[in-house]
Design a protein that fits this description.
By secondary structure, this protein is mainly β. It has two helices and ten strands. It has one domain: Jelly Rolls (Sandwich), CATH 2.60.120.10. InterPro entries: Cupin_2 (IPR013096), RmlC-like_jellyroll (IPR014710), RmlC_Cupin_sf (IPR011051).
Amino acid sequence: MLDKVLEARQTQFSHVKPGDTEWRGEGLRDFFLYRDLGVAEATHGKVIAHLVKANMAPEKGTGWHRHEAEFQIVIMIKGWARFMYGNKETLVSAGDCVHQRPGIVHYLFDYSPDMEYLEIVSPADFKTIDVEGPCEVPPFTPWK
């Protein structure tokens, strides 16, 4: 019996190809599309990995917030995004990797039309908490 319980908790093998999952608008932000990579199911909720891409032009961005998560990275695949991490503006371009330490207050306020990034977070059911920002946010760049 114990073997079956331990086996049920083990991380499973997962292989998701581009056509296996669809882009969906059912994510944290309605101006992005999300594509699940099967990691949350394979890890029994320990980790989530999804692709995120721009769906609408930036108007107000994400607002100031923080995540209740143990681990979070963003790897920019295409385009760029401008974040505020505390009172520091950070441009994240294709090829860049950002480790967002637990609880860091941030704001994604601008991004290119072709922006696409991989986000990996633990746990999969992390919480997002809106917070007061430490400073003003620069204006976004309108799409042409």
